[in-house]
Amino acid sequence: MKKFTLLLFCGMIFSANLNANAPTWDIGYCEPPQWGECTPTAAVKATLSGTTLTITGTGKMVNYRSSNDIPWNNIRAAFQTVIINDGVTSIGIQMFRNHTNLTSVTIPNSVTHIANMAFEDCTNLTTVTIGTGVTSIGPRAFANCSKLAKVIVQHSIPFSIGRDVFYKINKACCLYAPADWIHVYKIADGWKDFSCIRAIGN
């Protein structure tokens, strides 16, 4: 029994050390000056564990002028899943652009805006789940996501989306929306272009 307790305690310490050493970046919103860059705040953080990037905190993410400016640029090929926790309210410009091994992302109800080119060129992205809080999506947010097969929108009423949000996605991609609002999505600008529109759960 003592041996088991010691092993369990050691395992807990090892796990805690792994979490403590996980790469973490500050990506909270900052207001850039007229010229130059600003330093992202710690209000929102990104933490990498294995192949999963988890976003935590409160408020908006910072915007980037280029996807090459993202702090994890050199290792972004390692990401397969992005988890955004409740509390985050927007996804920044070019935040996950060209993350070519990313396969799925879930956007929580606290997020209200997905910015321009946020997931553009994520060529292996297959599934996107968009929570009830999102009310706008910027231009080209999911453009060139050529393997996108399923977009799940939990918002009942179709909301405004920018130009070319779903430009050159998989032609067979299905949009899933609340059953009572399928008929509205089928005639709404930007949403009606999906070749397949179904009720969530079907």
CATH class: Alpha Beta
Q: Which H/E pattern describes the elements?
A: HEEEEEEEEEEEEEHE
Shape: globular
Structural class: alpha/beta
For the largest sheet, list the strands in their spatial order: 1-2-3-5-7-9-11-13-14
Q: Compute the separation of the termini in Å.
A: 50 Å
Rg over alpha carbons: 19 Å
CATH superfamily: Ribonuclease Inhibitor
Low-confidence stretches: 1-19
Average residue pLDDT = 88
Major sheet size, sense and barrel closure: 9 strands, mixed
As a percent range, the share of strand residues is 25-35%
Total strand segments: 14
Q: State the CATH architecture.
A: Alpha-Beta Horseshoe
Q: What is the number of helices? A: 2
Number of domains: 1
Helix content: 10-25%
What is the CATH third-level topology name? Leucine-rich repeat, LRR (right-handed beta-alpha superhelix)
Descriptive notes:
With 202 residues, the protein is an alpha/beta fold. The protein has one domain: Leucine-rich repeat, LRR (right-handed beta-alpha superhelix) (Alpha-Beta Horseshoe), CATH 3.80.10.10. Helix content is 11%, strand content 28%. It contains two helices and 14 strands; from the N terminus they run αβββββββββββββαβ. The strands form two sheets. The protein has a nine-stranded mixed beta sheet, with no helix packed on it. A five-stranded parallel beta sheet has the order 4-6-8-10-12, with no helix packed on it. Helix 2 links the parallel strand 13 and strand 14. The longest helix is centred in the first third of the chain and has 19 residues. It is globular and about 45 Å long. The N terminus is likely disordered.
